[in-house]
# Entry
Amino acid sequence: MVSLVNEMRKIMLANLRWIFMENKETFNLVAIEYERYRPVYPSEMFDDIFTYAKLDKQDSILEVGCGTGQATGGLVSKHYTNITCIELGSNLAQFTADKFRSYPSIQVINTSFEEWNEEGKLFKLMVSGTAFHFIDPEIGYRRAWEVLEDEGCIGFFWTVHVPGYDQLHREIRAHYIALASHLDDSQYPSPDEVIQERKEITERSGLFTDIKVKEYNWIQSCSSDEYVALLNTNSKHQQLSEDVRSTLLERIKRSIDHAGGTIDKHHKVALFLGRKKV
# Structure
């Protein structure tokens, strides 16, 4: 029985990775909403990355999947501005280029990491925020290894969904089960399982050493409008038909309003650090 459960979990994780790959373009459609409603990454996380990588301010950084530049902003806030950003979505790439136009040392390139021509340039640090799962790990980690200097480092981080089980979250979950049962988060792998899976993927590449995992947690109180706007930036919600998505979000908003108008959202970010093997 235990082996059957473990096998089902593996299948679920594989399916989630497939969903991620299918959804690479969805963030490009909601660039402004993504910038407005997605929470910023914790400042402490960037300190941990720079300490681990022993990075000087002038060292070169590669960011893969910069989106609207939220992680880029975290780097800049610590006065690291020698950044090359790779972004597949044209709207997102333009948004980030405009956002950091006053920093001539920040370059935004509209292409995929797999197709990007680095022209022999090497980097001291490569970061990626909630994006590297879109890349086949057999290709992505090898490519990361190739574009890093000797003993260069990776700092990949993801937001990890944490299910809630209070009355309000159970009511919201019922809406998902009724309208989009594949988004019932009680059936997803646990946060610990998701984090362990990513750690194992990093280790299996065999290209990085001194692998470390750090977690950051905080609670955000959201109004009903803020919460449904946040959900609307999620790629899995963007994949729903317009009718299903609007009905689902309307029901979720109504539930939050009936419960007092606010909902506590547990945010978790997991950071994976590694040093290039030479």
User: Anything to note?
Assistant: The chain has one domain: 2-163+189-220+266-276. Residues 2-163+189-220+266-276 form a domain with the Rossmann fold fold (CATH 3.40.50.150).
